[in-house]
Task: inverse folding
C-alpha cells in the first residue's frame, strides 16, 4: 500500500517560490492508496506565537486554508507543530509496511521535521523533492534537501519521475 502525506499546502505559504506546489500535489494524489493532508494552525499560546512572534495561521483564518483540493477520501489533519509525525500517520505507515511518501511546504521545516521523526521511529520517509518547496526561497528548499540527504539518506529523496509519476 502506498501512502502520501501532503504537508501544509496552505494559502499563507503560497508565494513566488511555492506557487507551483498546489497544482503539483493535487495531481500527485491519485496514484496513492491513501492520502493524508495536514494543515498548520497556530493557536494562542503556541511556541510559534510565544517564541517566534508568528501571529499568522490562527484557527479559521484565511491564510490557514488549504491552497489545493484534496481528493474526497483524503484524511485531513490539523497540526500545530512542525512535524506531521502524528498518530494517524504513524499507524497507517506501520500498517502499510513502514514507508510513507512526503511532499508539501516547507522542505526546510515541516517536511524536514516530519521526515526525521519517521526516520528516527524506524519508518521510511520518502521525500518527493520536486513536490516540495520553501516559502523562504529556493535556497531554503535546497538546504532542506541537503540536510535531509545527510540525516535520512539520499535513497529516501526521490523525484516524481523516479516514482513513475
Result:
Amino acid at each position: 500500500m502506498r501512502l502520501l502525506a501532503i504537508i501544509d499546502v496552505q494559502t499563507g505559504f503560497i508565494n513566488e517560490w511555492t506557487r507551483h506546489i498546489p497544482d503539483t500535489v493535487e495531481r500527485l494524489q491519485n496514484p496513492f492508496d491513501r492520502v493524508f493532508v495536514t494543515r498548520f494552525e497556530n493557536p494562542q499560546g503556541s511556541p510559534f506565537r510565544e517564541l517566534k512572534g508568528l501571529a499568522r495561521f490562527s484557527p479559521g483564518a484565511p491564510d490557514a486554508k488549504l491552497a489545493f483540493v484534496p481528493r474526497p477520501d483524503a484524511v485531513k489533519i490539523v497540526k500545530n507543530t512542525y512535524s506531521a509525525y502524528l498518530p494517524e500517520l504513524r499507524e497507517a505507515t506501520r500498517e502499510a509496511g513502514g514507508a510513507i511518501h512526503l511532499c508539501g511546504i516547507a522542505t526546510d521545516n515541516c517536511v524536514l521535521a516530519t521526515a526525521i521523526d519517521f526516520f528516527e521511529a524506524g519508518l521510511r520517509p520518502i521525500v518527493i523533492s520536486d513536490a516540495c518547496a520553501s516559502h523562504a526561497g529556493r535556497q531554503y528548499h535546497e538546504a532542506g534537501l541537503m540536510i535531509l540527504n545527510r540525516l535520512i539518506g539520499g535513497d529516501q529523496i526521490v523525484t516524481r519521475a523516479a516514482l513513475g509519476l
Notes: Residues 83 and 113 are 5 Å apart (CA to CA).
